[in-house]
Amino acid sequence: MRKGREEGFTLIELLIVMIILGLLAALVGPRLFSKVGKSKQQAAQAQIELFATALDTFRLDVGRYPTTEEGLAALRVKSSGVERWDGPYLPKEIPNDPWGGPYEYKCPGDNGEYDIISYGLDGVPGGEGENQDIVSWKGLEQKQVTN
């Protein structure tokens, strides 16, 4: 009787496959991770645009935008002394920005009737790349061209 060849992979074959996978991950990984930052910026811009729509609806009902003191919370909960409020104007609670920080709301704003700002990854004004501010008065595409 002939002894059959044992089935399976050798250690060398496994090491070669692991090296190839490691090289692929090293080449593709950085490109994928750079997309994460841009997608967070786009998500922040989309949230700001959603707030803008809700603020405009609030203004149509109440006759004014929420004050800085009332903040974005006025889109969810009726403030005392506000008549003709027909909210809530947002379906869910006010989210933090994609980096976990709060959105800053100011009315009247320095750049329009109101300003909404996300300070990006670093959480402080200014910055470039993923640290740059996402603001209500500029679209994301315009901002990246000017920076």
TrEMBL record:
SUPFAM superfamilies: Pili subunits. Its main location: membrane. Keywords: Cell inner membrane, Cell membrane, Membrane, Methylation, Transmembrane, Transmembrane helix. It is found in: Cell inner membrane. The chain crosses the membrane at residues 12-33. Residues 31-137 form the Type II secretion system protein GspG C-terminal domain. Belongs to the GSP G family. NCBIfam families: IV_pilin_GFxxxE, typeII_sec_gspG. This is Type II secretion system core protein G. It comes from uncultured bacterium Rifle_16ft_4_minimus_4226.
